[in-house]
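Worked example 2:
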Amino acid sequence: MNEINEEHREPAQPNPPIFNLPNVILLFLLIMVAIHVARDMLLSDEQNLQVLINGAFIPQRYLFSFSDQNLAYFTTPVTYSFLHGGYGHLAVNSLWLAAFGAVVARRLGAVRFVIFWVLSAIASAAFFAGLNWGQAVPVIGASGVVSALMGAAARFAFPLGGRFVREKAHFLPRQSFADVLQNRTVLIYVGFWFVISLLPAIGFGASSNASTIAWEAHIGGFLFGFLLFDLFDHKDW
């Protein structure tokens, strides 16, 4: 199970480029950067606040009937994942997206990746709302989705008896939960992720006064990607 399937092996590249990213990853990175630069350079403080109100996920919004809401009632469980609290926040999420999102995107393909992004954003927001129901706390950032991608990568990208190889990881067989629990590399990786995900809880990471980086969304996203990856993965080997 820990062998790369020879039939699906890509031609070896002696020196693979560092930034060899799938087009869908480049597109999402461009969208996130463009939105943040536009907010920072083109919008007034009042306009930026309106973007946060109508684009951030706010649990309190769901205390009221959708008949009393605007379109944000339905869109913010996804749109919040494209907003960030500062350039530092954006940079961290972009780096993690490039590192682990690329592996998952190659595995799933563009269409499945987009579906995964949307559903993992919703799941992350729902998990946050469940622990902070009714709170007037705007949540922004792709951290929940990135955590879901990291959870998905933990199911296949780290071979039981070898090391992580970025350009070939998407060809590896999907591991069962029992296999994952025996995979020392995955356990170390998950432990490292857990530490990183809790940093916002102690104040690490850039955020504005009107927003927060939510560790609860990180947990919800990771669980979504780790537990439900099988539903998106069309490879049986």
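The radius of gyration is 18 Å. The chain is about 55% helix and 0% strand.
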